[in-house]
Amino acid sequence: MTALVREDGGRLRWAVTDALTVAGRDVAHWRRQPAGLLVGLLFPVLLMVVFVYLLGGGIAVPGGSYRDFMVPGMLALVMLFGLEGTMTAVVTDTQRGVTDRFRALPMAPSAVVAGRCLADVASSVAGLAAIVAAGLAMGWRPDAGAGTVAAVGLLLLLRVGFLWVGIWLGLLTRDLGVVTLVQVLIWPFAFLSNVFVPVSSMPAWLGTLAEWNPVAATVTAARELTGVPVTDGGWATEHATLLAVLWPVVLTVVFAALSVRRWQGLSR
């Protein structure tokens, strides 16, 4: 029994060490080529400025200002946008033969996908920080305390769920054209939520679809936790915090397993 425990512990340390090595490789790429990271940080900020200052005046929000309504929504949107970045990185590694070289090395089977996950979570923290800083500069004042910390935790949990979706999709294809298709589809998926407008402003059937969007659950929970009251919606809105935990957990469990299985089944 002791030998088995030692063997399992050794395998775990091996997997963690390999995952950290892969994550360090991705972070090193950002240091050497920071332009892509900077664009990823600035684009959501510019989008938020457009909606708050150019379009926000024409959007009525029950019980608050559009600025306070929009910032939590944009924080969640950044978590969704990360899917395409993850997919692009995975497909690029496959095209350049990096994936095949990793498979030839004596690495833990889960190390490459786990390392990708760690690196992208780190970039997501930077993205959240950029949006929060921009929101504060625009006058957004979230409730200080455990609520805001919990909102950040839910946002990162959502990122992890979509991250595994991106890894799995990236492992399915070697064509960057598929990434472009996913980028196009992300926009209607994002708009079919409560990120930009309240669900009460939509037709009833569309509002119901928007409420059950995984992004909408996290947006609603983040708004409530940062002090923005949400009064419109049905069961999904009333139980947004529960769904904001369940959706990412389901996505993570399903697509992490699929990603590891796909990685192990790739042809050499």
Protein architecture, described:
This protein is mostly helical. The chain has one domain (2-265). 78% of the residues lie in helices and 0% in strands. The protein is built from eleven helices and no strands. α1 packs across α2, α3 runs antiparallel to α7 (176-191) and α6 runs antiparallel to α9 (214-225). Residues 1-9 have low confidence and may be disordered.
Number of helices: 11
> What level of helicity do the residues show?
over 70%
Distance between the termini: 36 Å
Query: What are the segments in which pLDDT stays under 50 over at least 5 consecutive residues?
Result: 1-9
Shape: globular
The class by helix and strand makeup works out as mainly alpha
Main β-sheet description: none
In percent, how much strand structure appears in the residues? under 5%
What is the radius of gyration computed over CA atoms, rounded to a whole number of angstroms? 20 Å
Average pLDDT number: 82
Q: Give the number of DSSP strands.
A: 0
Order of helices and strands: HHHHHHHHHHH
How many discrete domains?
A: 1
